[in-house]
Amino acid sequence: MIFWESFFIFLIGLILGSFLNVVIYRLPQGKSLIFPASHCPKCETPLRWYHNIPLLSFLFLKGRCAYCKASISWQYPLVEFLSGLLLVLLYLKFKPHYGVIVFSFFAFFGLNLLCLSFIDLFHKEIPDSLSFSLIFSGWILALLSKNPLSLSFLESLLSSFAGIGLLFFINELYYLLAKRDGLGMGDFKLMGGLGAYLGYKSFFNVLFFASLIGVVCFILMRIYQKLSREDLETSEDLLKKEIPFGPFLSIAGLIYLFYPQSLL
């Protein structure tokens, strides 16, 4: 029974992941999420329904547009698969013990983090509509007394503002040392959303794991450059680049969500 339930949830996740791809592509450009219908971003030819089947269409089309044969970004099947996987993990964690309402809120939480992570990765920005929706929905969940982390509405409210203030304070310290901003306003609001759902007790864990994952990614990028024999940028040049912190915060937030009683 649990297998078929998980399989059904995975399919729903694939469909939602297909919509997230639309959001990731259109929201930063200020385009409508509904009109026009799905089309190739290269030749702008409208796609038929069977070109939009999550995962399968990418495989059948061999990663190319059916009309102009332009390459389809790896982002599309990856977001669809991650959406399905994340939804199943959240379902198994929350539905049996806390019910549909809690699962629905945290499904929104997880898919929102996935969406804004890819937007931040490609566009170096986090839309206010996504970060504020995290904050407000976290408050509503606490107001309904449904938060599995036992957050009261007041604690959720204060934690969201504390998260924003904490990253603002860290950024100010960094500015004093480096004479430039290290974090963006989108990161502040994202931390506010994490605070609304996870509470202030999560902050140390979230910042630790986000920083750790960021350092690991930095090292892997250097190794890749060396193995591929690309022109190596100096560490100073790499540190001056705008490296999005939103994806690292999102991953760290999900780690805490699944393992709140971590060693930290």
UniProtKB/TrEMBL annotation:
It comes from the Bacteria. Its EC number is 2.1.1.-, 3.4.23.43. InterPro entries: Peptidase_A24A_bac, Prepilin_IV_endopep_pep, Prepilin_pept_A24_N, Prepilin_peptidase/N-MTase. One of its GO terms (biological process) is signal peptide processing. The keyword Protease applies. Residues 108-219 form the Prepilin type IV endopeptidase peptidase domain. GO terms for molecular function: aspartic-type endopeptidase activity; methyltransferase activity. The keyword Transmembrane helix applies. Keywords: Cell inner membrane, Cell membrane, Hydrolase, Membrane, Methyltransferase, Multifunctional enzyme, Protease, Transferase, Transmembrane, Transmembrane helix. Pfam families: A24_N_bact, Peptidase_A24. It is a multi-pass membrane protein. Residues 11-94 form the Prepilin peptidase A24 N-terminal domain. Coiled coil: none annotated. It is found in: Cell inner membrane; Cell membrane. One of its GO terms (cellular component) is plasma membrane. It catalyses: Typically cleaves a -Gly-|-Phe- bond to release an N-terminal, basic peptide of 5-8 residues from type IV prepilin, and then N-methylates the new N-terminal amino group, the methyl donor being S-adenosyl-L-methionine. Plays an essential role in type IV pili and type II pseudopili formation by proteolytically removing the leader sequence from substrate proteins and subsequently monomethylating the alpha-amino group of the newly exposed N-terminal phenylalanine. Belongs to the peptidase A24 family. This is Prepilin leader peptidase/N-methyltransferase. The lineage of its organism: Bacteria, Pseudomonadati, Thermodesulfobacteriota, Thermodesulfobacteria, Thermodesulfobacteriales.
